[in-house]
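Protocol step 4 of 6: structure prediction from sequence.
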Amino acid sequence: MSVPASETATTPQPGPVATGRPRSDLGTFAREFLRSPARIGAVAPSSRRLAEALTAPVPERGEPVVVELGPGTGSCTGVIQDRLAGRGRHLAIELSPTLADLLTSRHPKVEVITGNATECRSLIAERGVSAADVVVSGLPWASFPRDLQLSALDAVGEVLAPGGAFTTFAYVFAAQTPPARRFRQLLRDRFEEVVMGRTVLANLPPAFVYYARRPRP
């Protein structure tokens, strides 16, 4: 799947938003948000459309290793599983024990790990994985302080294979806030290629995806 090489996110146009999320997921996600707003960073899971954009770099062939950070209720988890179709390995690192248990029950083929994304290198190494072909992130980067942005991005760079891809998303309404702009610059500092995808209107709120490749040493 090709990714538009735009430098800025497309300006959103009014239109219907079809999230396609079960009501139970909305309730679970909202409860976790109320417990820890800064850690969750959103009041609703990602839509199917956004999940498909986030998981576009997952290879359709071979035996790829996919590491998912902050999977939440599994919006991207199911799409990754569909793309892998039984191939490779899929490890999902979730900080919330409640959400980790939910993922385990829904996706028994996924290796769900309860832990912090900043420790992803050691967490996947314990399971015999040295590097990931794709890292898909649902972490709320714009709500992180600078030190946490740095440590989490460094962790991504440590686990990503030289030719691998890293994807994450940002909300359009927050794209120009100081934390979001700082994160964007950190991405460009740490990867040779950073592309911003088109706005996904079928998400609440509208969002766009960052595609990053070739981590710098």
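Step 5 (inspection) to follow. Confidence is low (pLDDT under 50) at residues 1-21, 37-41.
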